[in-house]
Here is the input.
Amino acid sequence: MTAPDAAELRRRTRELLAAHPPATTARTDFLKARFDAGLAWVHYPAGLGGLDAPRSLQPVVDAELTAADAPDNDPRRIGIGLGMAAPTVLGFGTDEQKQRFLRPLWVGEEVWCQLFSEPGAGSDLAALGTRAVRDGDEWVVDGQKVWTSSAHVARWAILIARTDPDVPKHRGITYFVCDMTDPGVEVRPLRQITGEAEFNEVFLTGVRIPDSRRLGAVGEGWKVAQTTLMNERVSIGGSRIPREGGMIGPVARTWRERPELRTHDLHQRLLTLWVEAEVARLAGERLRQQLVAGQPGPEGSGMKLAFARLNQEISGLEVELLGDEGLLYSDWTMRRPELVDFTGRDAGYRYLRSKGNSIEGGTSEVLLNIVAERVLGLPAEPRNDKDVAWKDLSR
Here is the structure.
């Protein structure tokens, strides 16, 4: 079957709109119809929300739907599912798993979270200690995960656990899909510097996961996790934004609207950061074009690095520009928000929230190593734990 071209995608989109007018069709019903028509993510296989079309043609569909004021699937609320879980399920899931998970994930009926980091295995994720022990057709999981965004609203989680402690740490890990409503799953809020608790810690006590919810082979979870992590860094650092989108937008608006705040020094710093933000935005466009040819590579780590540094520098400049106003903070009310908002609320929130950007999605220190070794081809750092069984590592 020949992949559809732009004209064919426009035709199919207009047929969808004619059969399911957005003005009179319930939002969820429209999104389900869009998925079934293959217009959700056009580069996915037919029957799984796509049409085996080039990824570069997705904007053709999006433009038609935007012009018709069609609803979207609220991608910020389900970003972990869209950006991390879906490509991993597509790459390593069985046919049954793809059919079960991808449609409600894309429509937004089921929110996903990520159970990777642990109190003793954050930057060194492969050192994780959560255990999964085989019991017939099930796995019994015990452990603790931390910094879990959206766990309090999630139905499903992508989970990595140690299934063999007698081999080196990067082996002996297996990848699962965990039902967050199962007995033994406890979610506790972690209040952050912003006052909110968008993150959580998750305790797993005797959680039983059917082997049918395993992704990839037993002991090859690290390989599966790399797909998740590379997609995560692209989704964080390489998301499509317009010029002056993201952190640079509010500070640029303040500069234009409030000339009394301007100084020569702040002007020079703003110009430098504006140019760097625009360069990063265009580099993100190039990265997305590279994705058309295949899976994301380590270049996404460089984009995520730039994202974190720029957010922190720009938000710091904004607070300084506002002077006394920049020291105000509007609301310390404890919330458990349903989505992560890097640029929301006021300047004080943006400044505080950006501090987490260099930790979440891979610390900047780890990403620098990835860029050095996998992009620039520099020698790898020496490792003394490469051939040591996980159980024999000092902790």
User: Anything to note?
Assistant: The first strand starts at residue 112 and ends at 115. The two ends are 55 Å apart (CA to CA).
